[in-house]
Structure to design on (307 residues):
């Protein structure tokens, strides 16, 4: 995710880092070159390159902009829903850190369930969820996995869920030893259920993209519209046509490409959510709740990018 202060008017036209222009530059350049050729050919050989009526392009442009706006809103909803789920996960993790103090409330119980184990598993869950939602992302969760769970963790196909089962198992064991009451077990289990719900919601977002047919229709229409646009305005705008067509192409292709990035909130694009930084934030909060002072460094953007 791009993290930077609002640019001034001069910077606004020269910012490249975080701009969608990097992705769409080939298409925009192609429209500019095509528009220039169309204007030149129409003026030199109007019999071979006729001009078209621009009225239909105006109507199509309005309709296309509306549909692109709908898709952009749908993709932003996915991005914002993913951010809300990770925000909820931060809240639940902090709640678990406070509630886990119950595991230390009965020191007279033989072999008490270690609170440290539960907190480590909760931190590992968050880091594992990052690599689960963002395949290829290197995970730091293995340093937190107890030796007795290493083999199970390595062969699990859904490692975040496996860690939640272990956390629930720790609470059940504490209840069986009389370390926590049945009511306290229900409270702790409800917190684990909220973590599981956040994971399930993130899985739903990742595995349910915007319908392909809808995206394909807009991709095709946007490209056809921008490629045919010079033919409709070459008579009216003359040599201003390449610049006008390029501006329209930048707007339509840019909105389309930005929607693609927002559609994948857990991806590695510049506008993806900084879930790795959020997982590190959770680790800092939970380790601080355990009284630790040697904490990880607060996540900071690198070259304006926070991942």
């Amino acid at each position: 995710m791009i993290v930077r202060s609002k640019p001034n008017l001069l910077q606004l036209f020269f910012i490249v880092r975080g701009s969608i222009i990097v992705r769409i530059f080939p298409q925009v350049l192609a429209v500019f070159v095509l528009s220039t050729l169309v204007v030149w050919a129409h003026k030199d050989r109007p019999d071979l390159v006729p001009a078209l009526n621009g009225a239909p392009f105006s109507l199509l442009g309005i309709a296309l902009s509306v549909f692109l706006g709908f898709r952009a809103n749908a993709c932003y909803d996915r991005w914002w829903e993913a951010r809300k789920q990770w925000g909820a996960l931060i809240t639940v993790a902090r709640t678990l850190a406070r509630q886990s103090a119950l595991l230390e409330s009965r020191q007279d119980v033989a072999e008490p369930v270690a609170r440290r184990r539960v907190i480590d598993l909760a931190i590992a869950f968050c880091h594992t969820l990052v690599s689960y939602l963002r395949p290829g992302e290197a995970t730091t969760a293995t340093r937190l996995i107890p030796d007795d769970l290493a083999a199970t963790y390595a062969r699990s196909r859904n490692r975040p869920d496996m860690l939640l089962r272990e956390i629930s198992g720790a609470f059940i064991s504490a209840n069986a030893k009389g370390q926590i009451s049945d009511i306290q077990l229900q409270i702790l289990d409800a917190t684990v259920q909220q973590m599981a719900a956040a994971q399930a919601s993130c899985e739903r977002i990742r595995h349910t993209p915007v319908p392909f047919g809808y995206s394909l229709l807009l991709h095709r229409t946007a490209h056809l519209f921008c490629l045919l646009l010079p033919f409709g305005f070459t008579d009216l705008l003359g040599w201003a046509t390449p610049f006008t067509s390029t501006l329209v192409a930048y707007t339509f292709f840019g909105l389309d490409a930005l929607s693609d990035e927002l559609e994948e909130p857990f991806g590695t694009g510049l506008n993806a959510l900084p879930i790795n930084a959020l997982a590190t934030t959770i680790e800092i909060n939970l380790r601080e709740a355990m009284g630790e002072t040697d904490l990880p460094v607060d996540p900071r953007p690198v070259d304006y990018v926070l991942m």
Remarks:
- The two ends are 6 Å apart (CA to CA).
